[in-house]
Design a protein that fits this description.
two-stranded antiparallel sheet, 2% strand, 68% helix
Length: 788
């Protein structure tokens, strides 16, 4: 409704803004979310026009301009102009951010994050000036502990939608200085994802994220171990020194004044005073240094306590490791890779690297990480992304070693193994020498993969076969991988069989086996025979779909006319796939037909005859009369394309042509007998031909039709099929392709099939009728639930 101005005025005049604001804190998350989106739409629906952006120069530090002041006056004095709705929402938003209720603060932040990216000047500046003070209160007063993520979303939305502002950057820096390491890391991760981030803020965010990783692994990632607090310590030291110098100067001035007024002070007393002052200054400096050291130790101890607790340790390290791909532009990117590798070793139960200098107190944190699949998955994802950073080539051996450890570990989780395979593929591309890569795979990797293919967990077998299929892209490995894939075709799990077939399809640009000559051909024929058996006998649709997709890939790499065996295989696939019970198998079969038409129609000498031999026409008609609408629609489109390419329009008018150019088309026939759609096609032909059916059949003759007919896979080729129509003997079993294509009314069928059932009942009017009828029925609750 809010796409129409009338709806906005209706909400304004009916005073429905207040109920919407109340629904913002509804216990139902769905209702509260919908209310927030509607309120955001109300704020951005009727924005005032402007000629210039309100935040120029230094952004929010400049006073409001004339446009903002005029907007504020209009919103306060024009209740009927729609501005009152905006003012009411802004007041509620400001009070929500200042509220002590966690729910109100949370929903207010969510509304603000939704609205800011859509606001324009001068409304953007007015909103920011209203909410900036409550936001500062949330951050500086420590009331934003439970809403760190939405609060950071608001700050980032503000940063992205307007110019850089010092107060905003100060707020983001304060968030990074949070005493809760998880909150600080959450803010740092969000800060690093900014496209344009101030260098000082980025450096601080990097220090926050690398600190826990450095503490656990012992890999030096930061120049200063307390880099997060170093800037603060330097600022405090500089301020203290300035205060001390000013205090000393004041004392010296007072001393000279006293000496001029009272000459009774001796030099000995003056020396004693200077000694006392120097002692006081030294004491103050010592106290300040001790306070700073205590602050640094307390921050480190707080981080250590956080890491020694298993839930907080896991969440913090996952966040830090997931952010490492965003900080690889620094000089120590190789150290970051080593830290991730070391963390993965710790999670796998191994000791960290020899370069580790982890604190003694982190032993409990290391214990918490052993066998933690969540940290392992995050680490493997990050490791896969780090393969392109500088220094990756020198660390290939280290990375492969830890990945092989994960593959060899019998306790590795299936999802962890899948991530390991993905990381392995990314790092295989880093190796500069293909020969060394082949040696590594054959000697170290393949023995492990052979064991994983026989794993008791089907998920592991499935992931391993997918990985083997991707390894087949390397020709040096295809000869060793293919036998493993062929053996997996008999797996008891359908998902695994489907993955084995998909992996085999990746070997098609290469020889299907490492053997040459007759042995290689025998292996290929055996593989095709197994695939056809799966297509005809497998009880699960996943494997059957994969078989048809295999032959689609095969057709793209092996011309169908290259051998009679390939034509026989394609004929079997079309016959089995077009009558399969699974609609996706039938759609994939039609995709195979589409590729066949692309390949053969443009230049084949006997195109129409060849299409009928393979069973293309029969497969298309099977799809046309299928009960699944997507199948019928695709078949109808392909039949239209086939008709326009091979059948002259004159053949659709019921007269037999004698033109040499179309004589071949007129003679091509196919057998209707035994097909589920035989009666329907015959009826359409009779309607199309009318009384010409008997006359044309007499002219052509049964013998001639039977002589030219080509069977498309049935065992009754060349046999006569006669029936009695209007008292005469005619051969209705054999008809020409073009007559059928022109008699089916394909344009009308496509128009009907293109319309889904939704166009009858799915409309706004139908929904409103259901809502109104809900109040006049005995089953009101059921209808209300349906409408909701």
């Amino acid at each position: 409704m809010m796409h129409h101005p009338q709806a906005f005025h209706f909400l304004d005049q009916a005073g429905l803004t207040k109920p919407l604001l109340q629904l913002q804190t509804d216990p139902s998350l769905f209702v509260a979310s919908a209310a927030n989106h509607l309120l955001a739409r109300l704020l951005t629906f009727k924005q005032p026009a402007t000629t210039s952006h309100t935040t120029q120069g230094n952004g929010l530090t400049v006073p409001p301009n004339t446009e903002e002041e005029e907007l504020a006056v209009t919103m306060a004095t024009s209740p009927g102009s729609g501005r009152s709705v905006t003012m009411e929402i802004l007041k509620h938003l400001e009070s929500s951010l200042e509220s002590d209720s966690h729910t109100q603060v949370l929903q207010g932040l969510r509304l603000l994050a939704l609205t800011l990216p859509e606001l324009e000047a001068p409304l953007w500046g007015s909103v920011i000036r209203r909410v900036l003070r409550p936001l500062e209160g949330l951050v500086l007063e420590g009331r934003g502990g439970g809403v760190t993520q939405p609060l950071m979303d608001v700050l980032l939305a503000t940063y992205r939608s307007g110019p850089c502002d010092s107060r905003l950057v100060s707020l983001m820096a304060s968030m990074l200085n949070s005493q809760n390491p998880s909150d600080a890391a959450l803010c740092a991760a969000a800060t690093l994802r900014l496209k344009t981030c101030p260098p000082d803020l980025r450096q601080k965010a990097v220090a926050v994220l690398l600190g826990p990783l450095q503490m656990v692994t012992g890999i030096t990632l930061l120049d200063r171990p307390n880099d997060r607090h170093a800037d603060q310590q330097i600022d405090h030291r500089h301020a203290d020194q300035q205060i001390d110098h000013r205090h000393t100067d004041q004392q010296i001035d007072h001393r000279h004044a006293d000496q001029q007024i009272d000459h009774r002070h001796t030099d000995q007393q003056t020396d004693q005073q200077m000694d006392h002052r120097q002692t006081d200054e030294d004491n103050r400096q010592t106290d300040t240094d001790q306070d700073r050291q205590t602050e640094g130790r307390s921050s480190l101890s707080l981080l250590l306590d956080h890491l020694n607790q298993k839930p907080s340790c896991i969440s913090l390290l996952c966040l830090c490791v997931s952010s490492t791909p965003y900080i690889t532009d620094m000089e120590s990117s190789a150290s970051v890779i080593l830290a991730v590798v070391s963390l993965l070793r710790i999670c796998n139960g191994h000791s960290p690297s020899t370069e580790s200098k982890a604190p003694i107190g982190c032993s409990k944190a290391s214990t918490n990480l052993i066998g933690c699949s969540k940290v392992q998955r995050c680490g493997l994802d990050s490791l896969a992304s780090l393969n392109t950073c500088s220094g990756a080539v020198e660390l290939v051996v280290e990375v492969f070693h830890v990945l092989l450890q994960y593959l060899q570990n019998p306790d590795s989780d299936p999802t962890v193994l899948q991530k390991t395979y993905q990381a392995m593929l990314r790092w295989l591309s880093v190796s500069a020498e293909p020969s060394s890569l082949a040696d590594l795979v054959n000697e170290d990797l393949l023995p492990v993969l052979r064991k994983r293919v026989c794993d008791v967990r089907w998920e592991v077998r499935d992931s391993t076969l997918e990985f083997l299929g991707q390894l087949c892209a390397c020709e040096a490995l295809a000869c060793t991988v293919t036998p493993i894939l062929l053996g997996a075709l008999c797996d008891q799990e359908s998902y695994v069989r489907a993955s084995a077939i998909s992996a085999l399809a990746r070997t098609l640009p290469l020889p299907l086996s490492g053997l040459q000559g007759e042995a290689g051909n025998h292996t290929q024929e055996e593989a095709v025979s197994q695939l056809l058996d799966i297509l005809s006998q497998d009880s699960e649709g996943f494997a059957r779909r994969a078989v048809v997709q295999f032959f689609i890939s095969w057709l793209k790499t092996h011309p169908s006319s290259s051998s009679s065996s390939s034509s026989s295989s394609l004929r079997s696939v079309l016959s089995l796939g077009s009558t399969d019970l699974d609609w996706e198998v039938k759609v994939h079969t039609l995709e195979l037909v589409d590729d066949l038409m692309e390949e053969t129609l443009p230049g084949h000498q006997e195109t129409e005859l060849w299409l009928v031999e393979l069973g293309v026409v029969t497969a298309l008609l099977n799809g046309l009369f299928d009960c699944d609408r997507p199948v019928a629609l695709k078949a109808c489109s392909l039949l239209l394309r086939l008709r326009d390419m091979v059948c002259p329009r004159s053949l659709g008018k019921g007269a037999m042509t004698t033109d040499d150019a179309t004589a071949t088309v007129a003679k091509v026939t196919f057998d209707l007998r035994g097909q589920v759609w035989e009666r329907e096609v015959t009826r359409k032909l009779q309607e199309k031909r009318g009384s010409d059916w008997v006359r044309e059949s007499r002219e052509v003759g049964c013998d001639r039709l039977n002589g030219n007919r080509v069977s498309d896979g049935t065992d009754g080729a060349g046999s006569e099929a006669c029936d009695r129509v209007t008292g005469e003997s005619v051969c209705e079993g054999s008809v020409t392709v073009c007559e059928v294509l022109w008699s089916l009314g394909l344009e009308e069928r496509r128009s009907v099939l293109s319309q889904s059932s939704d166009h009858v009942q799915n409309s706004p009017l139908s929904l409103l009728q259901d809502i109104l009828n809900a109040t006049h029925t005995s089953h009101a609750e059921e209808v209300i639930v349906d409408c909701y």
